[in-house]
Structure prediction request, 131 residues.
Amino acid sequence: MLQKLTIGARIILGLMFTIFGLNGLLLTFTGSGFIPMPPQPEVMVTIMTGFMATKYMMKLVFICQFLSGLFFLSGFFVNTALVLLGPILVNILGIHLFVEPSGLPIAILVLVLYLIVLISRWSNFKGLLKP
Prediction:
């Protein structure tokens, strides 16, 4: 049962990050994606304008999301996907906690799915916490 939950969480994360990562790449490189963007509050426009002004930040984030999504879907390099997405998820959660709370339920769902996959592979990461 736990294995099915982990596989389900990995597949859902894979689909989400592959689709939204690809959409973000299209938005970044061409100016339009296949998922229409709803109007954003002014504070989010300010934040995203700052990210876009770096010329690389959002491209890097969307590439990491897309690759991680493919890794989750394939079942190969899942640990790499977890490492790539960790900082991105912290930022997504932070933005929805402190700036735009309307997206918080989805951010929490993604975090729970991420934690399910991370806990299933914890033996690969626990060495990072040794002094």
